[in-house]
């Protein structure tokens, strides 16, 4: 009971500091920031992977060039051994007459055949990998894509990186296949050179 003539104070409800519309705006802003962060992080990771892939591909190509140089040096040794073998045959001829041995076309050695086969394969386009110019171009545009803040541009950049990574994976597979073939040929070439050296050494010893 309250005294007569007095009024009970009405319970005051706390007024919301932020309206429902404001809450929705804050929530949407947070979601947008989350999506933007996800896009930015995904793009940064993809670009870092692309850079690693490009560097790896460059290193693979350098290794391939080194192996090709080694193969070329073995081919030169093989050519020298072929000329030496001709001289030994001439020296072993009792009559000293080896008819037209200078003019006769010698058959290709195993090393020369393998080298010719590799060159023919390369000229037929079996090695379709990205040029160094294309890799450098990727490096120049990588920073531009990393600095992009437009959502549509970020998504497009992410798709472009995924395509580049797929192409790089194919290029790496090609380089590794080439290197595997080169290793097999170099091993065979080394065996051929060693065999020729041993045979010529044995022939020269018999002549002494």
UniProtKB/TrEMBL annotation:
Domain of life: Eukaryota
Keywords assigned: Mitochondrion
Region Disordered, annotated ranges: 1-22, 106-154
Biased composition (Polar residues): 1-10
Xref: SUPFAM superfamilies: SNARE fusion complex (SSF58038)
One Gene Ontology cellular component annotation held by this UniProt entry: plasma membrane
Domain T-SNARE coiled-coil homology: 145-207
UniProt record similarity statement: Belongs to the SNAP-25 family.
Protein name: t-SNARE coiled-coil homology domain-containing protein
Organism: Plasmodiophora brassicae
Lineage: Eukaryota, Sar, Rhizaria, Endomyxa, Phytomyxea
């Amino acid at each position: 009971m309250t005294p007569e003539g007095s009024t009970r104070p009405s319970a005051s409800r706390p007024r919301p500091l932020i309206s429902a519309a404001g809450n929705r705006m804050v929530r949407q802003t947070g979601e947008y920031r989350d999506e933007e962060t996800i896009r930015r992080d995904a793009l940064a990771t993809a670009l870092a992977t692309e850079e690693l892939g490009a560097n790896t591909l460059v290193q693979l190509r350098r290794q391939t060039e080194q192996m090709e140089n080694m193969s070329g040096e073995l081919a030169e040794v093989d050519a020298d051994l072929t000329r030496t073998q001709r001289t030994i045959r001439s020296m072993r001829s009792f009559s000293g007459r080896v008819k037209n041995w200078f003019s006769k076309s010698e058959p290709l050695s195993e090393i020369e055949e393998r080298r010719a086969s590799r060159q023919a394969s390369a000229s037929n386009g079996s090695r379709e990998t990205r040029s160094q110019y294309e890799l450098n171009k990727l490096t120049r545009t990588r920073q531009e894509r990393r600095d992009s803040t437009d959502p549509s541009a970020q998504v497009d950049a992410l798709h472009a990186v995924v395509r580049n990574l797929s192409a790089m994976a194919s290029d790496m597979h090609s380089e590794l296949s080439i290197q595997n073939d080169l290793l097999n040929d170099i091993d065979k070439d080394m065996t051929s050179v060693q065999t020729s050296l041993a045979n010529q050494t044995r022939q020269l010893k018999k002549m002494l």
